[in-house]
Design a protein that fits this description.
Layout (H helix, E strand, L loop, with lengths): L5 E6 L10 H9 L2 E5 L8 H6 L9 E5 L7 H20 L4 E5 L8 H12 L4 E5 L4 H9 L10 E5 L4 H9 L3 E5 L5 H10 L6 E5 L7 E3 L13 E6 L1
Length: about 240
C-alpha cells in the first residue's frame, strides 16, 4: 500500500462560493493541504477567493503556487517543475492535497497541466478530480439564456485574432461561448456587426461573483476588459 497522499483537482465553480459542490466542500474540509494559484504580487487568486469562506488558514497548510503568464519555455518549465515538486513533497509526507481551480478542473484549467506533469514525473501518485460548474453554465443562468435545446449545436471556443474563424464559429453553431474574449473584443464586435447579431450577444466578467459585470455590448468598443470575461452568442 502506498503511503502517498492523494492529489485532488477541485472545481470550485465560476465565482459564487455557494456554487461549489457538496463533494468539493467535503474534500476541502478533509484535505490538510490546500494548493492554489498564487499571484506574484501577493493578492489572492480567483479560485482562492472563491473558497476563502470555507477555509481556516490556521488549520490548513496553504500552498501557493506560481504559474507565470509567459511564453518563455525555459521559465515555464522551471516554474511548473517547481510547483509539481512542492506538491509532491506534501504527498510524500502522506498528506492529501486539494488543488482548487475556478470552473471545472478538466476544462481549460491550470490543473490539467499540473495533472499531466505529475503523471509524467511521479506516476505513483493517485489523482482524483471533482467536477465543478463552469463559467458558461454560470453565464447561461445569470443571463437567462438557454444554450441548447433539442438538436441545437453549442461550442465553447477560446477567442483569438482570426476574423474568419470567429465568424465561422458563429455561423455554424446555434450558440457559442467565447472564453478569453477580452484581448480580441474589438474584432468580435466587428464580426457581430457584420453578421447583424450584436443584439444576440452578451458579455460578462467574473460571472456569479460579487465582482460580476454584465456589459452593454454596444458600449464595448475600445474597452479594456479583465481576463475572466466571456461572450455568449445565441442565435
Amino acid at each position: 500500500m502506498s503511503n502517498l497522499g492523494i492529489l485532488y483537482g477541485l472545481g470550485v465553480g465560476p465565482g459564487d462560493p455557494e456554487l461549489i459542490t457538496v463533494k468539493a466542500f467535503r474534500v476541502i474540509q478533509e484535505s490538510p493541504v490546500i494548493a492554489y494559484p498564487k499571484k506574484l504580487k501577493g493578492s489572492k487568486s480567483y479560485a482562492h477567493r472563491i473558497v476563502d469562506v470555507y477555509i481556516n488558514p490556521e488549520e490548513k497548510d496553504m500552498l501557493g503556487l506560481v504559474f507565470p503568464m509567459t511564453k518563455d519555455e525555459a521559465v515555464l518549465e522551471r516554474e511548473w517543475t517547481k510547483s509539481v515538486e512542492l506538491v509532491y513533497e506534501k504527498l510524500q509526507a502522506g498528506k492529501d492535497v486539494a488543488f482548487v481551480t475556478e470552473g471545472d478542473p478538466l476544462l481549460y484549467s491550470t490543473f490539467i497541466h499540473m495533472m499531466k506533469l505529475m503523471q509524467d514525473k511521479h506516476p505513483d501518485v493517485e489523482i482524483r478530480t471533482v467536477p465543478g460548474i463552469s463559467s458558461f453554465n454560470g453565464s447561461a443562468s445569470r443571463l437567462g439564456i438557454a444554450l441548447a435545446d433539442g438538436d441545437d449545436r453549442v461550442a465553447i471556443i477560446p477567442a483569438y485574432d482570426n476574423y474568419e474563424a470567429m465568424r465561422e464559429a458563429i455561423e455554424t453553431h446555434d450558440a457559442v461561448v467565447f472564453i478569453k474574449v477580452a484581448k480580441v473584443i474589438d474584432l468580435m464586435l466587428e464580426v457581430l456587426r457584420d453578421l447583424d447579431l450584436l443584439d444576440k450577444a452578451s458579455v460578462v466578467t467574473k460571472v456569479t461573483s460579487d465582482e460580476e459585470i454584465i456589459w452593454d455590448v454596444r458600449e464595448l468598443d475600445g474597452v479594456d476588459l479583465e481576463y475572466l470575461t466571456l461572450m455568449v452568442v445565441r442565435k
